[in-house]
Amino acid sequence: MPNLAINGGPKTYTGTWPTWPIWGDEERQGLNAVLESGKWWYGERVREFEAAFAGFQGAKHGVTCSSGTTALEVALIALGIGAGDEVIVPSYTFVATASAVMRANAVPIFADILPSNLCIDPDDVERKITSRTKAIMPVHIAGHVCDMDRLLEIAGRHHLRIIEDACHAWGSQWRGKGAGVVGDCGIFSFQASKNINAGEGGIILSDSTELADQCRSYTHCGRGKDKPWYEHYLLGSNLRMTEFQAALLLAQLTRVEKHMTLRSQSAAILDRGLSAIPGIQILSNDPRMTRRSYHIYCFRLNASRLGISREQFLRAVQAEGVPIQLGYTPLYKNPLFQNRGEGPKFCPISCPFHGQTIDYTKVHCPVCEQVCADTVWIKQQNLLAEPAAIQALVEAIGKVCANAAEIA
Question: Exactly one of 140, 144, 194, 295 is catalytic; which is it?
Fold first, then answer.
């Protein structure tokens, strides 16, 4: 009888996995209260959530937005990033990190990542700085906090801004300080897949009152603080959060600490189990990261050692009844950057203010390209499973690695 389920053998796990979102009476009561109040628009609950989430991360100010993507765009514009400016971004991230730069009419410059935690490589950041560079946008991938000590030192020496894309890092901390509050500002997302979820939504955190007020104006149709309603001072937009979203998020925030604990416990089981399996490499946590939130659990696969492709490994493990998936491709290889000249003429596709042509077909970040070829993801909701299910996940991976020769 074959050993592997993909060949007709018994599955390692036949149970179910947690679904997402998780919701309960808190969400229902919050939404009903907003409905029955008749006050559905940006108001009291939005302000309550802004204060609560800012407090959770340790920031003085929170400015909510319609999404994490628009929050990135607003933060860039509010910090004075504009036409022809360069912003250094990691090559391993979601498209919004770079597209937000382009929406600000600035130019994303891709830096490589560290193989140990998949976060931006400070050495490569420094190599990419030019006279046009205005900001660095580190992304705290999968809840790992980037090396903020080094990035702050680089930014200070070159007079650069730091915008933290913390859309994977609700609750993560660097030297006891919340992710998103270490640089000039930080961005969080509440999109449907995120650990705190309202379907959509985002927030900008900052300790700067001036920056927070500027961001508020850009999200609030350019209105001035404490100014007449129909006076508009900036070229803003309507990027506000609704009371319904805030009600959901206030409810989600009540269970975030419990969920963080469960995910951390699951990650510890995975670390212990996967580190003992030949062909599997786990990532490392920087000791300066005093708390880690898990949005994704990532590990790396030595497919050549096993004699199978990553895709064969993926299918075989999934057949065992446990969930794993593939992750990002190098962002600069997306058609948006490879097919120059198509679509609207945002920088760097066509930018007379930049003064030179950017050819992303020539970008090469070797660590990122290797990581994209060998990394496997476990999504955050599956880290909320019972310990027995997490142990079964380890066993399924071990079973496939031990019997890789069976895979055609």
Answer: 194
